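Anyone up for a design puzzle?
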């Protein structure tokens, strides 16, 4: 199955970083395409986007200053199908992407994404005290997978922190 194309550009407000694409994303060629994934709902309900986008509109979010990438580009059924070497290589590539494009915020969609990338054992939700790449603020958000058992309103409230940051620190409006 082909890799999912990144949506990257210079000057991004947020670069959303996942583990790797689902099989459904691999079939469609779009990020967060599994119908059980709540990503697009979370973005709308948190106020990060003005409406609920569809997965096939993922490239349109570049206009809003939002980009997409993954630690591993290869679609799989689950993260257990990713080899350690793929993580190591993907982390090296991700580090280079962050250093090259310098998004204002690197949003890791899931604690596991962040801990896998950084090698840190534990982390809290939200903004991190230390950034992996100078000039890029690290933010850890809950996974948007439908398998997550955290209440949706709690997930949305964490993503709202990103919206408030963009409004306050970067001067963006709702």
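Challenge accepted. My sequence:
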């Amino acid at each position: 199955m082909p890799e999912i194309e990144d949506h990257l550009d210079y000057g991004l407000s947020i670069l959303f970083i996942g583990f790797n694409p689902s099989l459904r994303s691999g079939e469609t060629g779009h990020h967060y395409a599994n119908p059980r994934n709540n990503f697009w709902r979370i973005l709308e309900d948190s106020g990060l986007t003005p409406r609920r986008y569809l997965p096939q509109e993922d490239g349109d979010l570049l206009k809003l200053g939002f980009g997409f990438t993954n630690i591993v580009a290869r679609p799989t059924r689950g993260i257990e199908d990713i080899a350690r070497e793929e993580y190591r290589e993907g982390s090296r590539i991700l580090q280079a992407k962050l250093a090259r494009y310098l998004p204002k915020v690197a949003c890791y969609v899931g604690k596991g994404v962040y801990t896998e990338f950084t090698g840190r054992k534990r982390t809290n939700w939200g903004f991190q005290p230390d950034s992996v790449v100078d000039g890029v603020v690290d933010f850890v958000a809950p996974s948007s997978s439908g398998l997550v058992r955290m209440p949706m309103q709690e997930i949305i409230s964490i993503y709202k922190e990103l919206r408030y940051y963009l409004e306050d620190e970067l001067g963006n409006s709702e």
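A detail worth pointing out: The chain has one domain: 14-169.
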